[in-house]
Design brief:
heterodimer; A: alpha+beta; Multidrug efflux transporter AcrB transmembrane fold; Alpha-Beta Plaits; 2 domains; 4-stranded antiparallel β-sheet; elongated; B: alpha+beta; Gyrase A, domain 2; 13 strands
């Protein structure tokens, strides 16, 4: 059976990747990111309705003004209560006119209410926290490089880390291109992407490591890598599909406030599968200073 | 058919499934949830001018910072500290047991002073380097103070001049302790005793460590609020998550048949153990924690997929079911170990260096990975052994093979 040689077509995949990265970096530089209220601060509205209201009713009204992912908290002593009169709403900074329109809509949809306070609020995540997170993540990569170097070899480690960096920047690119809001849960989504990506890459490298031991001279390194990728293909597909189940379900049916969270994972998982299957192997060969066909 | 082995399988399988059905709800409801999933206490602090300092932007920023340090020192998972308007600070704490104590602590100015017998302030909070609560002599909660170099010099000087007299340590003007100086203290250390509980001592230590507030803060509001994720979003997402996991279960059954059933049973056990461990460790579940769980479920399923795919390879190489299963497990093991240990390494760093969401993610992922090695590898191995030994079928189709369906393999 003649199957598609991934390694021999490395030029295609490298080009696609570089293209994606360039578009992504371009967007990150020129469009930047749409940071959510966790980072930028915003407005807080503290309302007391005449009749009890539900979170979803308030969200429906806000949604008409593009504020559907606002933080809406009911005031009550029981956490599982479905409706209450006191409602705390945190949104991005909105103009006075806009706020008046929202308030009017609220009145007509949900009845009378009293405004207890409307004020600007600061960020909940400061630069310090972001910096700490970045340092922690980078150091965790160093440790991963160390472990993979011990168990495999240094070049495997570098290829794996490059693959996961590409996944992280692809996810970031998606958020910059689509100007999706980045909130505090984004970092957790990114970490999930990293974990998923490294897992997928290691499985393929593990097979290459195993095949290296029984490698015959008649077989080229290129073929050996291709064999390794293809013999783990069913596993890669099954694992990708099952991982996507939960993420797609949350993306489609989950609430408005975690829509972006699940999208980040979705984008990252797809990128992770792509880099594990199509990039990691050729990348390792490339780092060896060899070319496809050797 | 060997009823003995089949019996073993059925007993274990039903025990796990039965346990899951009975205990999953009570278990899930006892794991603590964070501000985003469960809600908590919403506190508003109002800054007021003091004779020394008017409330301004800078003062409020500094106060917010100090409050942040105090809240973080309480060890609560992912609290929110936020400036509101010109002169207020919002603090949201996830389900605190005893919010009053924590809240009272937040608003304390925490001005520490050491006063000599004449009532003159000789040292203050600026001279402190660190404060720690410990169980002191005779099981008395004690706060150990450590001075800065300059503070230590001043303290040695003051104690030398006042041997046999009393030196008062006061917090916001209230006397905490008023010991008689026995001899000059040159080590740069002092102790405060007299706190009634360890918790009180700990709160005092936190206050001293975080420094005194530049302005006076008054608690003007204190109420219970729902999850920041929104009750509606939370419910929708819970449902969606269950749909997704159900999809995984069905997928495993369809693609791996009996092996898939075993993987599903192992996954049920895994879920129970994870919740049990989180409850035992008193961990708080948040959205980032859920991300960790999603990844660890993915890795648990992946471990089983790796094993079953190896098994299929071995069958294709002409092995018997039993031999294929054994070598499937042992050959997949290095892969599973390497990928899981790499993940654990990352978790370790993220746990120790990370804060907030990063830490929450690292805890659940690490627990999940450790447990999945037990459930997805050990438990499913035993269950599959029972099933194969039970000799229900020799058709590898029932263990996930497609191409060889219908073809029996050698018995032993």
């Amino acid at each position: 059976m003649k199957r598609f040689s991934i390694v021999r077509h490395w030029k295609i995949f490298f080009t696609i990747t570089v293209l994606f990265l360039l578009i992504g970096y371009g967007s990150m530089i020129f469009r930047g990111f749409n940071m959510g209220i966790d980072f930028t601060g915003g407005s807080i509205m503290d309302l007391e309705f005449a009749k009890p209201v539900q979170v979803s009713q308030v969200r429906d009204v806000l949604d008409k003004h593009d504020l559907g992912n606002a933080v809406i908290q009911l005031e009550s002593s029981d956490a599982n209560v479905k409706e209450a009169r006191g409602v705390l709403i945190r949104t991005a900074v909105i103009s006075d006119d806009n706020r008046k329109a929202v308030m009017n809509d609220m009145q007509s949809a949900l009845g009378g209410y009293q405004i207890r306070r409307v004020e600007n609020v600061g960020a909940t995540i400061g630069g310090e926290l972001v910096q700490q997170a970045v340092i922690a993540i980078l150091l965790s990569w160093v440790l991963m490089i160390l472990y993979i170097t011990i168990r495999f070899q240094f070049k495997f480690a570098i290829a794996a880390i490059i693959a996961l960096m590409i996944d992280v920047s692809n996810t970031l690119s998606c958020f910059s291109l689509l100007q999706l809001e980045i909130d505090s849960s984004f970092v957790a989504a990114l970490l999930t992407v990293v974990g998923y990506s490294i897992n997928g890459t290691i499985v393929i490298f593990d097979r290459i490591r195993e095949n290296l031991k029984v490698h015959r001279r008649s077989e080229t390194v290129t073929d050996m890598i291709d064999n390794s990728i293809w013999s783990t293909m069913t596993r890669t597909c099954y694992t990708t599909i099952t991982s996507l189940f939960a993420v797609i379900a949350i993306f489609l049916f989950g609430g408005a406030t975690i829509h972006n969270f699940s999208f980040a994972m979705l984008a990252g998982f797809v990128s992770g599968a792509y880099t594990s299957i199509l990039l990691a192997g050729p990348l390792w060969l490339f780092l060896q200073g060899k070319h496809a066909g050797d | 058919m060997r009823w003995n082995e089949l019996g073993k399988f059925l007993i274990v399988a039903f025990a796990i499934i039965g346990g899951f059905c009975m205990y999953i709800r009570p278990l899930a409801s006892t794991v603590k949830q964070g501000l985003d999933l469960q809600g908590g206490t919403h506190v508003v602090l109002q800054a007021e001018d003091t004779p020394q300092l008017k409330v301004n932007d800078d003062a409020l920023d500094r106060a917010t910072h100090i409050i942040e340090r105090r809240v973080n020192a309480l060890g609560l998972t992912e609290p929110v500290v936020q400036r509101q308007g010109r002169d207020r600070i919002i603090v949201e704490l996830p389900g605190v047991k005893d919010p009053e104590k924590a809240i009272n602590m937040l608003g304390k100015t925490a001005m520490l002073e050491f006063k000599d017998p004449q009532g003159k302030t000789v040292l203050n909070g600026m001279d402190l380097k660190d404060a720690k609560a410990t169980m002191g002599n005779g099981n008395r909660p004690t706060v150990n103070l450590e001075f800065t170099d300059e503070g230590a010099r001043k303290f040695a000087d003051v104690t030398a001049r006042n041997v046999g007299k009393q030196i008062a340590i006061t917090l916001d003007g209230e006397i905490l302790t008023n010991p008689v100086v026995q001899e000059a203290i040159t080590g740069g250390r002092a102790q405060i005793t007299g706190e009634r509980t360890m918790e009180d001592a700990n709160h005092l230590a936190i206050l001293l460590r975080s420094g005194s507030l530049p302005v006076k803060l008054e608690v003007i509001e204190n109420r219970t609020v729902g999850p920041t994720l929104g009750q509606d979003s939370k419910e929708a997402s819970q449902k969606a998550f269950l749909i997704g996991v159900a999809g995984v279960f069905v997928f495993m059954l369809v693609f791996y048949r009996l092996s898939g059933l075993v993987a599903d049973i192992a996954l049920l056990l895994y879920t129970m153990l994870l919740l049990l461990l989180m409850r035992y460790l008193n961990a708080t579940l948040t959205l980032p924690g859920m991300a960790g769980i999603i990844l660890s479920i993915g890795m648990a399923v992946d471990a089983n997929v790796l094993i079953f795919e190896r098994f299929k390879e071995e069958i294709r190489n002409g092995r018997s079911l039993r031999k294929a299963m054994d070598s499937g497990f042992s050959r997949a093991m290095t892969t599973i170990l390497d990928s899981n240990i790499t993940t654990l390494m990352a978790c370790l760093v993220l746990f120790y260096l990370g804060t907030g969401p990063v830490k929450g993610f690292a805890i659940t992922l690490a627990l999940g990975v450790l447990l999945s090695m037990f459930s997805a590898v050990t438990v499913s191995r035993f269950l599959l052994k029972f099933l194969i030994n039970a000799d229900i079928t020799k058709n590898p189709f029932w263990f996930g093979m497609f191409r060889h369906s219908g073809q029996e393999v050698a018995g032993k």
